[in-house]
Here is the input.
Amino acid sequence: MNECKTVNSSANMKNFIFIVCICIICTNFSFAQEAGKLRAGVEIGYLYSRSQDIGTLLGAAELKYNIQNNMNVGLKVEGSELTGCGCHGDKILLFSTTYDYYFHSTNKKSSRFIGAGLGYYIGENYGEGEQTKYYNNPTCLIRAGYEIRKFRISLAYNLLIIPKNINPYQNNNYIALNIGFYLGGGKWKIA
Here is the structure.
């Protein structure tokens, strides 16, 4: 079982590195946000679930509205599949509202940020010879990261609002390292 997990993790890491390289090449090099503008972002990441001791790739898309030059709110969709040996695992689809605050300085093309979100995820637990179980749960997330021009990297922690003992199927708290880019959003106010 551990050997199968190692092979799966190795293949996932190679795919992750390849996708990160593609995102870096595709990054649009212009400045970031102005109040009143929309932004659309795409991210890929590496998710680690401590409860299952499995890491895998995830994908996310987020639409944001800049409420001020250093703040935005958004809607995010994120999906992943935690698989051990291909015979059992969990599929997760997360929907959340988000808020980000940017620590932007004048005359800079980059910014640090922190963010949070509330959402709901839908899960599917499957196993060889077992009946598929469906579950869902409210969740919240916290994240911090760095944007340079249109390129973004962040570290996020997703936490179940309802503890594991109430949700008998799975504890899908996870940490994710995301990397991506976005389109739109106007330009930073540079004096």
